[in-house]
Every structure is written in structure tokens, then in C-alpha cells.
Amino acid sequence: MEKLKKKWPLWLGVGAFVLGTHYLMIVIAQIMLSGSFSFSGLGDLIINRLTQPGDAPRYLDIAENGYTATGENAINLVFYPLFPYLMRAVGLLTGSLPVAGMLISQVGYAAASILLYELILLDGDQRNAWDGVMLMAFYPFSMFGMGVFSEGLFLCLTIGCLYAIRKANYIAAGLLGFLSALTRTQGMLLLFPAVCDWVMRKVGEEKRKARASDLFLALIPLSFCCYLLINYLLHGNCFQFLIFEANAPWYQSTKWISENIAQHYQMAQSNPGLAWVIYMAQLILYFGVLFILFLGLRQKANLIYVLYGGVYLGFSYLSGWMISGGRYMFACVPVYLILSRLKDGIPRKALLMGSAALYFCYSLFYLKGFAIM
Amino acid sequence: MADLLGFLAGGGMLVFIGALFLRFLLEIRVVQADTCRLIRRGTILTLCAGVVYWLCGGLTNRVMTASMESIGRFDQVFHGPYIQHMFSALQKPEAIDPVSGVFVMLARILGTLLFGRYQSGGLLLAWALTAFGSCMLLAAVTKIAGKEAGEYAVFFMLCLPGAVFFFLPGWAPFLPPLIGGGSMLLARKKEAFHCPRLSDIRLSLIISVSAMLSAAVTAGLVMAKLG
Fold it and tell me: What is the pTM of this model?
């Protein structure tokens, strides 16, 4: 309680900075795209680009109608349930599902930024913590944290889980990991840093004794079992979602990273219009994140961060025909954790500058309607 | 270019997994910091040597054979009947000598983990065995004669004429672990083992000439396709 009283102005400042930056970007984009400012233009831009593109209509459909066993919307099963059902609940208060979706995303995103700030403070100082917050806010594809997408909520639950793991609060870690895994598939991967931390505390210097509460970590894989149960109840097949993902419109498959990266390059060559918004961006992000993870090893960053970053990157890039790599890497939290540790100097300043510039460009492209998804 | 990027991406991830595992062993105190540093040095030396041979082969392939094959396709860059036989045995098991057969079996297990990329599994196994052997050799010679001697020993092994075969599927990648293992046994009897001291200049000359001959073998392996 004392900590809350002392910290709430700072936390409010962090949240306000993150959301304020994005709304400023939306205003600038509205002026640049239409030639002048108008509230109605701003409203149209928000509705058109934050509540309608990409996966947003599917989340809204699940929130309104739930999962269905038949019909063309049966394929919505591939989207995990927490975000849309939370939208449904909040929608009862707001009276509008799109508004509920944006509210959940933006509150989640702001909360994620505050949690990231506190997580970085465990190992660094205020400068490091603000660096992490700025890097996440100015990540080129961070506009997805503002709309009817699961990124904001997922980030909040993931960073919360990592914080709980760092505090050896495995009850909270298990519960938050459970919810994160019900939001996106990648949430399951939190089991890796959780178990790694548990092993290191048990076998390392701390020699921590195992406790019954440690079993809460089993909630993380249990979450996936709940999702499989939903598949079974609707379609009589626990893995129905894989069948849907393998067909239109996703055509997803699982292939080794080399094949997928090679494919990204070939797609960039054959689709020049999409090269720099999808395929080359995904290629550069892969090598960039891999480099950052090696940097993390060299910096002796906390092993659970590097481990989580590695499994997250590897898992994401095992997907064939991926077109949302930019959005997926937005939630690769270890990137911000590792880069926030850079010593003050030219690389750090250049990184902040470059990140902000790319954030502007890609946010403008997204708000204009380019195929960033 | 696509295959090259794919190779770098997949290879980079595998190197990362290895480095992460080593760091984990360090965190839970299964290995000491000195051992970690040694493993890191030995592995980096091996990777660099492998890259040199790979570039040498790729360059020769482009210039001497005027081939437009991707440098990332080892099976298309390096030729010679045994190498081609090994590459095809990795894809589809066929009759082969027992030692190479063991290699194929292990490589196919790795290839299964890489979602059916058996040739990649073979290359991964070859590079891993060579790195393992290099680390053992480095540890052994460092114990006998010091850090510099250890490094020279590893360079000497990796510059042997024909060392390119350590990085290709076959029975040759089993040699570095044998050399390294033998050295570790010798290192136990350090007092009984007298290491002759050669000057840095002589050692450097030996390594340079050896590397040049090794590059010749590498180029020959590529130009074998010209018949």
C-alpha cells in the first residue's frame, strides 16, 4: 500500500506517456493523410484502422456470437478465448464491443508498460527502466497495442508473469501464465522461463526448497489443455484448430526456420509492394532479435529472459506462410529487457532515435491502410 | 540468396541454443566459468574454420565452375563421389560402410528434430562433432603446454589438408573427437609427456602452408563436378 501511494504518479506518467504517444501519432497521421485536422476524421481513422482490419472482425465475432461449430465462422476457433470473452464482459458496461476491445487493449498496454518499468528496475535504474518503456512504445509495430487485438492484454499478462517469476511468486506466475496462454499460443512458452527459474533457485546458490505452491506453474500447460477441450467440445477433435490453420485463409504449416526465412526472401522478391511492410521486415526482425539475444548472453542478462526470447523467436518463426511477424515480435519482451541495459553512449541514443523514426513510418503505413497485419 | 539467408537463420538459432545451454550449465554450476570460456573459444574457432572452408568452397564454385548455385546449398557446392553418396544417403538411406552408417543414423535423428531436413541434420552433426573435438584438444594441450600452445594445436588440426571433410557428412567428423579424446588421455600423464617447443614463427608458417593445402583440397572437392 505504501509502495502504491509512492509510485502511482510515476506509474500514471508511464501509462500516459505510452498512450499519449500513440494518440499523438494518430492525430499526426490524420492530419497528414487528410490534409487537415477534424474530430470526425480522427474518429473515422480510429474506427477504420483500430477496430476493423486484420483479426479484429474475428475477435468481435467471437465476442458477439461465441465460438460456433458450423458455418464459415467456425474457423474463428483458431483465436484463443480470453481476449474476446473479456471483450464480451466489458462490452456489457461500455455498450459497444469495439470500444470494449480498444479499452482492454489500451489498459493492458499501459499496464504492460508499468510492469515492464518495474521489472527492469529489479536489475537496473530509472534510466534503464524508461529506456525499456520507450523501446516498447516506439517499436515499429506497436500500434497493434491500441486496437482490437490481443497484443495489449498478452503483453500485460506476460510481463506480469515474468515479474512474478523473478520474485519467486510461483502462484502468481502460474495464474498469470495460465491467462496469458489463454490469450495467445505463445503464452504457453512462459513455462520455459518459469521452470528454468525454479531449477536455478533449487540447484544454484539459493538452494530453495520445493514447496506445494510451486505446482501452480502447472497451470501454464493446463491452459493449453483447456483450449484443446474447447476444440473437442465443439468439433470432437482436440486439434481441430490445426486443421483450420492449415487451410484458407492462413495455410499455416510448421517448418524449420531456414525454410521459412528463405520463403520470406522469395516472397519479398516476387511481391515488391509487400516486401518492406511484411517480408523484409520479418527477415530483418528475425536476425535483429537473434543478435539481441546473443547480446543478452554476452551482457549476462538474466537467463530466463534470454531463454524466453529464444523460445519465443524460434516458435514464432517455425510458422510457414507467416505474415504477422512484426506484430508477433512486438510481444517479444526480452528485446526491451536486454536493450534497456545498454550503457549510455552512441549505440543507445542511435537505437532510440532509429526506433522512434521507424515507429513513425510503420505507424503511418498502417494507419494509411497498407497490409501490415 | 534465399538459401543463404535460410542457412544463416537456422544455423544462428542452433548456435544460440548451444550457447544458451552452456550458460544454463554455468548458472546451475555443472561447469565452471573457465570451462565455459574454453568451450566458447573452441567452438568459435571451429565455427570460424568451418565458415572459411564454406566460403572457399562457395567462391570456387562461383568462379571456377561458373555455377549459380546458392552458397547455402552444401550438397550442390561440394562434390566428389563419397560426399554425394553421403548427401543422398541422408535423404534416403542406402547401403553404406558401418562408420558412415552410424553417422547417417545420428544425422537422421537430428534431421527429424529439424522437421525433416536430414542434410541439415548431417551438417549440424559434423560441425558439432568437430567443435567437440576442438574443445577437447584445446583443453588437453592447454593443460600440457599452456593457452597459446592449445590454440596452435586446434588451428593445426583445423588446417590439416583435407580438414574440410570434418565439416561435411561422413566418417571424417568422428576424427576430431578421437584426436581430442586421445589428447585428453595424454594430458592426464602430463609429466610423462615432453612437448617440444617451436617458435611462434615456425608454428605460424606451418599453419599457413597447411591452410593453403587444405584450401586446395576444398577447391578440388568443388571442381570435382567438372569431371
Answer: 0.87
